[in-house]
Amino acid sequence: MSFEPWQCAEVAATKKANPITKPEVVIALIKKAAHPVLVVGSNATERYMEEKLLIEYLIDFAKASKIPVVATAHMVGEFLKRGYEPAGYMSAMDIGNRLVDPEWQGIDGKGPHDLALFIGLPYYMESLILSGLKHFALDLKTITLDNLYHPHASWSFPNATLEEWSHNLKIMTSKFEGRQ
Amino acid sequence: MPSLTQQTKLKRLEENDIASKSSWSCSLLSRKEVHLKIGELKTDVGLVKNLEFSIGKMHEETWTEPMGPTPFPSLTTLREWDMKLLNRYKPFYLPDCDLCCLCTFGKCDLTAGKRGACGLDIAAQSSRIVLLACSIGAATHTAHARHVVDHLIEKYGHQHPIDVGGLNVKVEAPVTRLVTGTKPETLGDLEDVLEYCERQITHCLSAAHTGQEGNYLDFESKAFHAGMVDQVGMEVADIAQISALNFPKADPEAPLIQMGIGTVDTSKPVIMCIGHNVVPSVGIIDYMKENKLDDKMEVVGLCCTAFDNTRYYDRAKIVGPISWQLRFIRGGFADVVVLDEQCVRTDVSSEAERVKAPVIAASEKNCMGFRNRTNDPADEIVSDLVSGKTLGVLILDPEKVGEVAVKVARQIAPIRRKYSNLPKIGEIKKLAKKCRQCNMCQRSCPQDLGIPAALKAAADGSLTELADLYACCIGCGRCEEACPDKLPIHSFIVKAGERQMVEETNYCRAGRGAIQDVEIRNVGSPIVLGEIPGILAVVGCSNYPKGGKDVYEICREFANRRFIVVTSGCSAMSAGSYKNADGKTLYEEFSGEFAAGNVLNVGSCVANSHIAGAAIKVASIFAKRNLRGNYEEIADYIYNRVGAVGLAWGAYSQKAASIAAGFWRLGVPVLVGPHGSKYRRMLLGRADKKEEWEVYDARTGDKVNVGPAPEHLFQTVETPEEAMVAIAKLSMRPNDTWKGRSIKLSHYIDLHKRLYGTIPNDLDLFVRTQADVPVTMKDEITKILEAKEWKETVIPDPTLLPRLIRKKKE
After folding, report:
1. Residue A136 contacts B, CB cutoff 8 Å
2. Residue B189 within a domain
3. What is the pLDDT of residues B677-702, one digit of tens each?
4. Nearest C-alpha of chain B: how many angstroms from A180?
5. In this complex, which of A9, A96, A134 lies closest to B92 when CB atoms are compared?
6. Which B residues in the span 768-797 are in contact with A, Cβ-Cβ below 8 Å?
7. How does pLDDT run across B700-750, given as a tens digit for each residue?
8. Phi, psi (5° rounding) for residue B440?
9. Is the dihedral of CA A38, A43, A45, A48 positive or negative?
10. What are φ and ψ of residue A123, in 5° steps?
């Protein structure tokens, strides 16, 4: 486990993400948040863990946590295909741009989001969007649920293996389901 | 005793001198020829003190079109227009770095609202970086144009006429006419245009100095300015070379050119030209032809030089886009490597050394540390290069480049025998066992390719996994730099993918150059009314997220949807690098005419100006709007009426940034692939803010809400599926007739359903009247509109410019 940017050159952050050492930290942050949102990128159908696609883990997690999901790129179709309707879909840049607007009433119209969780975007794109939010969305906290350390997030998991990643996602889901 | 070539050159210079002098008689001076200063002059009439005057350019005025309000615009002339766009498409900044390191006050931490020692905040700093990128891009194209124009004037004279398409192209330089208000008729006329560009780029660059511009929107406006100037510079470069070097002149049937590593006849000596500036290549091709060696040698090109070589000589071949440099050199195919300018790997000399291929640097901008041998006898240079006494030379005389390159290639080819630097299969399997699985290769790979797993498989005896990386690898070589064991990973990938490499045998249409006036007349009406669903310009570099096939598939999708698909640069190569079920490349499958359902390659980077030119000519030729020095009005026309969209799926360079900026100012939206997010700033509209989408109806002066058409001016898209849906959506314009909007909506809905698995949730923003609704989807859409409490609105005569309102409100 390493809290270094996954892509070696992404080092230009003076304010670096707090390390998430165990999934319970994420649970606590989500429970503390008034209005979280989960942003899911196109790698959701590119990453396999234990013969299961990332998107399937995320559907389980979203259902358990009841966090509204914003699907980026063409992921909305992938969610719908699996019987889950995200709260909204738009380009990754659009959701980033809306999150910096303190007057935006959120993907579900229930008010501004105070916590945004990101997962499954191309690393460099996600890094840049997290940077934009760090600089311009001062009332927003960000968490990346990827298995790659993102210095521009408020909180990030370390670089981890697929096994560790799937374990973390399963733990988080089960905590919300009240199974653990 | 001067050589034959030198004698010819001297003779040409004399002719040029005569041509220059004769130009006086027709009152066309090319430079500030006369400057007179008199301190004190006593005459019979009186005393004159401190009289100073200079005679600059005097035009013989033959162009009767009235001058518009903004000829030769300065940094701020079009600021108001820029702000109209920037208030609608506000910047969303994605700082790549929290710091500013540009002056010795710094480094300054600008995180989350902090200001630096100079007072700048992160928004302004980010926009400053955008301005710098656009200025570098504009300077690069303009300097390229300057070199080409100076060289061609030296060779052909100031009076050589501009001719980009004979009688088929009367508006020969639409961008130049629009921006400067001048109509260049000769090569000499282009000098003044370039002087304007050079001045403006200097101003743009100076604004980025510490303690100059401080507002982010003003930085953005200046970036737009740099982009506009860039379009002029590009146009000058291309129309000069088309005119003087007899490139295809707006030819829809420009020849099909062999493309791909597999097309190169390696039994012959091979000269490989890399870069963008055709001038040294012309020297090579001319020498080869003069000495009847054209059947005995191969001249191949990489990146835009490849295109311009083939526009000059249709037996030249295109190896492929910029990212093919390492694989072609390491594969040992090239006997001599000739470098001109732009996008050249700066380590070419060391790479070429490993395969014993001499290098000739042929541009002042790119000397590579080589000794300048321009004034040495050609045979002496040849001898030094063939013997290995020197690995590379700088030669700034293109004719000498030609002689040396050809002679060296012929002499060294039998010695080199295509010496390759690629490892043997057995070596790969052996070396792969050294891999520690530290992941540094993958963590350094821009594509995040699964290299460690592929190396593990190689160590276990299978090269399939490495071969699978070949198509997605952009050839940067960062994996090798990162490897603690210095494994030649890129070479492993190339060797494993060797079969794919040598099977690359495709066709690309040579760059046709401008669009004919008659083609514009034929499509002007259906474009403006929306019946041709859009013009898709697929341009730029090859920094693709998953290989070039996405470019091919996007082009084919939209050609089949009867868009006009225009390509240029490395994207044009990628578009032609795949075949359909009948074994035909895109350029064989589709016609090269500027018409619905066709795919046409305009040419190299600088030929991008013809795409802007086509949009401008729709306003000028079809709609008969005054073009001359009338930027705002023409941009307003294009923005509201011409459904053009740019896609730079693999954009990587500063030039790509300035090209995009030129289109932004013209009101044309540009999409970039995921790596384009690294330009660090998007220009995004807010579809959810209805109040931001009003235009004036020029007929009445009423404000009309036209919806988010187009929604964004600059946006990164993540996947090809997203790109396709976005292209269809961004093609809508306020002026679309109901029939046109209905067609555009059909494409948008169809692609959305197919690729997103659902009907769009924003149709209420794009349906203006019931007639807009595609007939075959009426029931489905009507239900959606009812649920959203949609209300019908009018289709205006749209404009953002109050001065264009014909009937003012009381």
Report:
1. yes
2. no
3. 999 999 999 999 999 999 999 999 99
4. 34
5. A96
6. none
7. 999 999 999 999 999 999 999 999 999 999 999 999 999 999 999 999 999
8. -65, -30
9. negative
10. -50, -50
